[in-house]
Amino acid sequence: MGYYIAPRFLDKLAVHITKNFLKLPGVRVPLILGIHGRKGEGKTFQCELVFEKMGIEVTHVSGGELESPDAGDPARLIRLRYRETAELIKVRGKMCVLMINDLDAGAGRFDEGTQYTVNTQLVNATLMNIADNPTDVQLPGSYDSTPLNRVPIIVTGNDFSTLYAPLIRDGRMDKFYWEPDREDKVGIVKGIFEPDGLSQREIEQLVDTFVNQSIDFFSALRSRIYDEQIRNYIYKVGFEQVSLSVVNSTQGPPEFQKPNFNLSHLIESGKLMVGEQSRVENSQLVDEYNRLNRGRNSHQSAPPAVTPISQPSNGATQEAKTNGFQTHHVSSPHLTLETQEQIRQLLSQGYKISIEHVDERRFRTGSWQSCVNSHIDAESDAISNLESTLTKYSGEYVRLVGIDPKAKRRVVETIIQRPNGKN
Fold it and tell me: Would you indicate the residue range of the signal peptide (predicted)?
């Protein structure tokens, strides 16, 4: 099967890897190449195709290996794999790279629910140290003065803004945002359906029909076409006999005829998959459960009397008429008008709000801590929580965070108080 390699992808990886094996006088070459972009666009698979084309051996590290119950294990693992890869270069006499998949999943910090552990700090610090001293990478408890071969590091991820900022600076990491254009998508999808006899025109029509879908959608679509034959086989042998006939059959594994891969059938199956995606995106049952739990808890723990925070002379609320309806805005004398307006704008755009604080010492490492248990989606809750946070942490930094619940990413981070108490 002749898979398609995007020219831009091939060019970026080939230049970065080759440059790391050359000795360029007076040129500081970033050791790490960070490939980031939307989920399911084939970042890892394109890397594998490039490595195969260039004859490069790869040592893999998964983002899931970057956490451990034992402090220091993930950092030690990275150093060990790096040294092993350097030894491969020496012994095999060929290019080798270290590849870390889904780095942001293992070392990133997405929201207040993501713990910033000792291992997270050590992984970031270790990668920074290796990028700065690529020929002097030691294992804990031992020292070898022999310089190592330089090993290019390739990392993949979806959102590198969640990583520690000094790690991704230009001197250490070269960034490459991978977003296949239409020509790339057509080429990749053609490789996926190459054994099925689809014409160039049919491939283009399939890509144009599902223009907003990622590459893995088309791979999953091809797999789904086999469902009908497998379903017929299950009903033929019976549910009770499927296990014996598939796993431990004396007659060998079942064989299936080539299914129907005509364009109309593919589009019909693809639309069913898109419908399932929409139901997942629109369900948001977790948010509903959280709202119910918050309401139940606040009802159970509500004090017998509530004292208003403030009562300005012109009333506790400001009213604005929009399309014949009245919108109530909570006003606060303790927050600046700009902060209050920013809260309203974030909530009106469907975003949620979180509040974080940090002392002066931890501010240098970016170790912010959340002040709320869940994301806030009501203006009154946001203002009251913010006021109480400013009072409680008057000698610390406090920042307002806007979060897109659908994309699960931060859209804004604004410091509204500094240790001198000014906001």
Answer: none
